Amino acid sequence: MSTNESKRTELGQLGEFGLIEHLTKNIKLKHPSSVKGVGDDAAVLDYGSGKTVVSTDLLIEGIHFDLSYTPLKHLGYKSVVVNLSDIYAMNAQPKQITLSLGISNRFSVEALEEFYAGVQAACDFYEVDLVGGDTSSSNRGLIISVTALGTGDADKLVYRNTAKVGDLICITGDLGAAYLGLQILEREKQIYLSNPDVKPDLEGQNYLIGRQLKPEARKDAIAAFAKAGLVPTAMIDISDGLSSELFHICGQSGVGAFVEESGVPIHPDAQMQAINFNLDPITCALSGGEDYELLFTIDPADIDKVKYLPDIYIAGEITPASDGIKLHTKGGNIHDIQAQGWQHLGKTDA
Amino acid sequence: MSTNESKRTELGQLGEFGLIEHLTKNIKLKHPSSVKGVGDDAAVLDYGSGKTVVSTDLLIEGIHFDLSYTPLKHLGYKSVVVNLSDIYAMNAQPKQITLSLGISNRFSVEALEEFYAGVQAACDFYEVDLVGGDTSSSNRGLIISVTALGTGDADKLVYRNTAKVGDLICITGDLGAAYLGLQILEREKQIYLSNPDVKPDLEGQNYLIGRQLKPEARKDAIAAFAKAGLVPTAMIDISDGLSSELFHICGQSGVGAFVEESGVPIHPDAQMQAINFNLDPITCALSGGEDYELLFTIDPADIDKVKYLPDIYIAGEITPASDGIKLHTKGGNIHDIQAQGWQHLGKTDA
């Protein structure tokens, strides 16, 4: 399940600048706004009009990813996608990224080439330019920092703090699958560690594993909004699970939410795998994270604009803050949704 | 020599979002171009005119800094400064930064408050806004990623690849001191580790230690250039030592350089300390790094514009590439300057 390396070039053979040059030599700038890319103290961008949007993420080996089951190419792709997802969640268009890496000597040049191939594939698919970064050694593991820049029209940017009572709560796609994909990969890793001769059993799990290893940002949804003339009233990307994102929107907007369990999209594979794992599918959707779908709210007057869009699920309604953040279960019960998030903090030591 | 903590609040007590809110609650946005700061998927900036410049740096505990002798407040300050230095090196003005942290459970909330106090002090002094970031746990040590954004006039941005034969090579301040400060701190650390009762002997070393722990970016030099109507022909900040930066400018501009040892500014304290350490002062200046002065080239016709500026040293001349990159020593010898840089890569393991 790890990356195959037929050739191994030590990083020291190239040196820092040789390495950067080697890894970035195929980069071609696509945007007129990318004036100067890799190779100076700073990249130079030209945003003549509109607003500039910037987002940044830090990914740390052992916390955010496990290289025993994550191919480096997929990791490069995902590192870009998680950042672009934040730009789309502003209803903006990403244009450039910077990428900084902390690399231990465990990695060969070929391994980094695979990582960059994934970065490049994401840059190509999402039409963004890699314009700069920093490369350093790390004393343990791989550290990835991506900053994305984008542009949007001032009157079309969508924030988290602007949901209003009566707005409809919408989701762009199914939730919980990425989390379940991770559980499958973790299970197979444990089996492999206890008996390296057992082959991983990933049969029929392509969808869930794909959602974990190669997520996509909803560029297409933002494009569909523009085509339909829709500007959501509030929006956030679902990186930490639906409940956590609901808490952000409700907390910042000073409102509550009433969510129908039956309105939360869950893929049949996720449904089945959750049950296999003895988990409640809705809990996976609420707390799982890493689906990178968009959670957004719309004025009910705009319902015709979303109704015919593919992959848009109406999951509930914005309520007064005093009503809290509630889930109406399929069984007819109503209970409080709990805030999740930053599960990472609990599991580390110094 | 480490930070005193009278109170200790575990990170888990606040949670991720509580922590970010706690650490960023005193941030006030200064720039009209800072439309939206911390608290959404992305920061929103408005650069109506000019070019946007972006730079990013990754700092890793154990590689770039040692907390046994680096106060967290100084580290916060320096983390910002090293990034702003890249923006000034484009002859641009920094306006915003994003800050991402990977934090192990070793750190208390109070420790992070100290770090942020340093970040805030740098933001205040350099008049930049902290507009976003990402906070995560790390499994070992502190990881800091800063991205700086700034603006500059298209016709005044200064690149690395535009030095011309005959240009004068200039430096904004003395070199080698930060490296020697680091050597003093490392020596005292080793003494302390072998006998914790021995007090560190830092007497009379304020200048060198200050250059290491609290460097400044040369905002004032950029302002002086503007006032004098000077636009350098090429520029880079000196983060990896003069030789490394000369190689960048010469390599990218397709030129050579002839540097006079007598023209390379070295502080008397650095001079003396180098000799105490049995090091050649000019070697410290060429290879030491972390001084964050600016190396720039000017058209000789502009010499009157720099001649009366304080702290500008003319160190040599740009030559044809075929002449190589040479140092003319005080002893009258001429020898090749060696490229340095990425010393970091050699000293790590997996």
UniProtKB/TrEMBL annotation, chains A, B:
Residues that, per the record, bind Mg(2+) 3: D41, D86, D237
EC code(s) of this entry: 2.7.4.16
Annotated signal sequence range: none
UniProt keywords, alphabetically: ATP-binding, Kinase, Magnesium, Metal-binding, Nucleotide-binding, Thiamine biosynthesis, Transferase
GO MF terms held by the record: ATP binding; magnesium ion binding; thiamine-phosphate kinase activity
Gene Ontology BP term (one): thiamine diphosphate biosynthetic process
Domain PurM-like N-terminal residue range list: 39-150
Gene3D superfamilies attached to this UniProt entry: PurM-like C-terminal domain, PurM-like, N-terminal domain
Binding residues for Mg(2+) 5: D240
Pathway(s): Cofactor biosynthesis; thiamine diphosphate biosynthesis; thiamine diphosphate from thiamine phosphate: step 1/1
Residues annotated to bind Mg(2+) 2: D57, D86
UniProt binding sites for Mg(2+) 4: D41, S55, D86
Annotated Mg(2+) 1 binding sites: T56, D57, D134
Residues where substrate binds: H64, E290, W342
Binding site for ATP: Y116, G133, D134, R160, S239
Reaction catalysis annotation: thiamine phosphate + ATP = thiamine diphosphate + ADP
EC category: transferase
Other known facts: Reaction mechanism of ThiL seems to utilize a direct, inline transfer of the gamma-phosphate of ATP to TMP rather than a phosphorylated enzyme intermediate.
PANTHER family with a match to the protein in the record: THIAMINE-MONOPHOSPHATE KINASE (PTHR30270:SF0)
NCBIfam families: thiL (TIGR01379)
UniProt cross-references to HAMAP family, sorted A to Z: TMP_kinase (MF_02128)
Family, per entry: Belongs to the thiamine-monophosphate kinase family.
Physiological role: Catalyzes the ATP-dependent phosphorylation of thiamine-monophosphate (TMP) to form thiamine-pyrophosphate (TPP), the active form of vitamin B1.
Name of the protein this chain belongs to: Thiamine-monophosphate kinase
